[in-house]
Amino acid sequence: MAIVQRNVQIKASPQETMALLSDASRWPDWYPGMTEMDIAAPFPDEGGKVAFKVKSAGMSLPITETVLEYQPGKLQLLQIDGMMSGRARWELAPEGDGTRLTTTFDYALPGGVFGTIADALIVKRMNAKSLEEALHNFKALVERQ
């Protein structure tokens, strides 16, 4: 499994931050390359699903995320299935006059040793860059509201 973790300080309360984070219809507004959203109830609650495609390196890759745990203002834990498998953990903590958002992707690519090599050479860097861009965009959106 590969792990990519990033965090950002947001000048908004955990509740304001979670309101945007848990609105899957808004994910394409801040996460680069996301298209074709299909949201199934009871999202954002446990068991809810979001199916979408991510455009990356000239390809459109299908992903489904299922909510494993949802704690408003604190945590959104998602199971990732599709072009990769693993978990996406979005943790919010009050910090100063705002919120510290920490995101951890713990994932594996299919393809055994070839998937591991591809991840080490290319995918992990792409995922880290996308996550950094997403958090930058997310912070700007939350702080504008």
The number of helical segments is 3
Point out poorly predicted stretches.
Answer: none
Structural class: alpha+beta
Measured by DSSP, the beta-strand proportion falls in over 45%
> Quick one: biggest sheet?
7 strands, antiparallel
Our measurement of the CA-to-CA distance between the termini, rounded to an integer number of angstroms, reads 36 Å
Gyration radius over CA: 15 Å
Specify the overall morphology: globular
How helical, in percent, are the residues? 25-40%
Assembly context of the chains:
single chain
Number of strands: 7
Order of helices and strands: EHHEEEEEEH
Strand order of the largest sheet: 1-7-6-5-4-3-2
Average pLDDT for all residues: 89
Essential attributes:
single chain; 145 residues; alpha+beta; seven-stranded antiparallel sheet; 3 helices; 46% strand; globular
Write the layout of secondary structure elements.
Elements: E1 2-10, H1 14-21, H2 27-30, E2 34-40, E3 49-56, E4 59-71, E5 75-82, E6 85-95, E7 98-108, H3 112-144
Antiparallel strand pairs: 1-7, 2-3, 3-4, 4-5, 5-6, 6-7
Brief account:
The chain has 145 residues and is an alpha+beta fold.
